[in-house]
């Protein structure tokens, strides 16, 4: 077994990157992903290269390569040198006056958004204002971010267990009024799972001309292999 040499100065070798790519295609094609949503399964069944074995969906390697090559994600905020990304959605904060850890509030959201903006960082809302009713928490994260920073929250909506189609629609309208871009996406859970309520939000925007995306957030040693190449795959 070759020893992997990974650092900020050298990074992964072309061979390691190629291996990661091929192994990823094997997983997508042979294991697939769980999609517990009847309408989305029906939609996917129309396409060549997709095999549905309820509730799992498997994608042919050539189909993945085709869409990975032809589609890209806006990277304008990362185009100049390096960028520090901070956030997202922490429900607790360290009180700077008392030194105690406590639940985050709307005031914390405002102050930390301004602080993050002063350092020029980009990213999601820094905290979730737990002192607000659940439906208003997510709305406030976008509203406060847009009012207090040009770089926070953007218009990237993460469908999650606390969100709903109505909340997503409201924030989409807010984005249009505020002149912000808007996209909707979900985070794949280990092991290769999605959830019906998050998929319902995605499905609502399927024919609305809104950019849709899917991403992962693996934690090496917890929800992903501890070794770097395995975690990437």
Instruction: State the end-to-end distance.
Output: 18 Å
- The gyration radius over C-alpha positions equals 20 Å
**Average predicted confidence as pLDDT:** 86
Task: Please give the oligomerization state of what you see.
Answer: single chain
Beta-strand portion reads 5-15%
Global structural class: alpha/beta
Largest sheet: number of strands, sense, barrel closure: 3 strands, antiparallel
How many DSSP H or I helices?
Answer: 8
Helix and strand sequence: HEHEEHEEHHEHEHEH
Low-confidence stretches: none
What's the total number of strands? 8
Shape, principal axes of CA atoms: globular
What helical percentage do the residues reach? 25-40%
- Biggest sheet, strands in spatial order? 1-3-2
What's the short story on this structure?
It contains eight helices and eight strands; from the N terminus they run αβαββαββααβαβαβα. It has 233 residues and is an alpha/beta fold. Strand 7, helix 7 and strand 8 (212-216) form a beta-alpha-beta unit.
Overview of this structure, please?
- This protein starts with 13 loop residues before the first helix and ends with a helix.
- The model has no long low-confidence stretch (mean pLDDT 86).
- Strands 1-3-2 form a three-stranded antiparallel sheet. The protein has a three-stranded parallel sheet with strand order 6-7-8, covered by helices on one side.
- The protein has helices at residues 14-30, 38-44, 61-70, 106-118, 134-148, 165-178, 196-204, 228-232, and strands at residues 33-34, 50-53, 56-59, 92-94, 101-103, 156-158, 183-188, 212-216.
- It is of the alpha/beta class and 233 residues long.
- The radius of gyration is 20 Å and the shape is globular.
């Amino acid at each position: 077994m070759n020893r992997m040499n990974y650092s900020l100065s050298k990074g992964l070798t072309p061979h390691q990157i190629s291996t990661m790519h091929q192994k990823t295609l094997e997983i997508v094609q042979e294991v697939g992903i769980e999609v517990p949503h009847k309408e989305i399964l029906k939609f996917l069944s129309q396409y060549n290269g997709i095999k549905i074995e309820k509730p799992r969906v498997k994608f042919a390697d050539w189909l993945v390569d085709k869409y990975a090559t032809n589609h890209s994600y806006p990277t304008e905020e990362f185009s100049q040198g390096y960028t520090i990304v901070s956030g997202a959605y922490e429900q607790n904060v360290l009180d700077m006056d008392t030194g105690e850890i406590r639940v985050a509030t709307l005031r914390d959201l405002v102050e930390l958004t301004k602080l993050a903006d002063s350092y020029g960082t980009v990213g999601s809302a820094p905290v979730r204002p737990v002192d607000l009713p659940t439906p208003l928490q997510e709305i406030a994260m976008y509203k406060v971010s847009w009012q207090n920073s040009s770089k926070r929250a953007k218009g990237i909506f993460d469908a999650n267990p606390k969100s709903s189609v109505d909340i997503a629609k409201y924030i989409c309208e807010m984005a249009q009024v505020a002149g912000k871009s808007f996209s909707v996406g979900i985070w794949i859970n280990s092991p290769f799972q999605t959830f019906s309520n998050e998929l319902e939000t995605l499905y609502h925007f399927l024919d609305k001309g809104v950019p849709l995306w899917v991403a992962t957030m693996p934690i090496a040693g917890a929800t992903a292999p501890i070794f770097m190449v395995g975690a990437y795959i």
